[in-house]
Prior knowledge:
The chain is of the alpha+beta class. Among the domains are: 21-121, Beta-Lactamase (2-Layer Sandwich); 153-244, PAS domain (Beta-Lactamase, 2-Layer Sandwich), CATH 3.30.450. The chain contains 11 helices and 10 strands. The chain has helices at 15-18, 40-46, 50-53, 68-76, 131-141, 160-166, 170-173, 178-181, 185-200, 246-264, 271-276; strands at 24-30, 35-38, 83-91, 97-108, 114-121, 145-149, 155-158, 204-210, 219-229, 235-244. A hairpin with a 4-residue loop joins strand 1 (24-30) and strand 2 (35-38). It starts with 14 loop residues before the first helix and ends with a helix. 16% of the residues are buried. This is Putative PAS fold protein. Residues 18-68, 131-201 form the PAS domain. It comes from Streptomyces himastatinicus ATCC 53653.
Amino acid sequence: MTRPDTPPHGQPVRSDDLIDEASTARATVDERGIVTQWNEGAEGLLGYRPEEIVGRSAAGLLADRTNPLSVAETLRALNPPDRFRGRVALLHRDGSRVTAGLLAHRVTASGDTTEWLVVSPLPRPERPLADEELLKRCFAQGPCTMAVYDTDLRLRWANQDMERVLGLTQEEIRGLRVPEISPGPEAEETEERMLRVLETGEEQHIELFLRMPGHDRPVAWSTSLAPLTDGDGRVAAVMLSAHDRTPQHTTRQRLLLLNEASVRIGSTLDLDRTAQE
């Protein structure tokens, strides 16, 4: 598959060509509350050039002026201690107030010292794909095996991996229940758990071992059944997400076999019996 941003003649794509640094206002603040780094996005947000702000107290950027130590003291008093989030009134270089959503992470800097990485997303131009379209593609093309069932437990949506596993397209199974799509005791158990999700609003987990048309061998499935709620908090659908855990299942079975063998083999001094075991 070729990425839409792949340049001609097979030239590699550089990160600088893809990542717009100016789309995030980013700065670092040391434990004393002093600004140590200031990027292009931060300049776009507050108007200060790096040479005007680096080395100054971050307190000077607050619209509600405080004493320079209060920023450091506030950061040290955070709970949890390694992150801050919230909307803060800041002071633009022209004197106007700018209210921005800030996210700050406490990180380890050089020399084992700590500092705060402070970021704020900036408005961006309209993207080629709207958010709703991206969400649809995320579901359809996601690496997990996923499907959505309505409150009658009939299939509404199946992603591409679910289609591959079942050997059926979404249109061929839309409106069918799980036992109608893949008959068997595992399907009956899955639907019982889905009904429990509808009744309780609580996520359910189920481990299954079965062979599906899209696989040439039995597969150990770890399946989660989660409620999808509407604006009033009522369960409006059930999301099924299944993950192939066959390697972990195989390893666990081998360990159990080895454990059983260690208990049973050589438990007596009878050489013939031990050889038979």
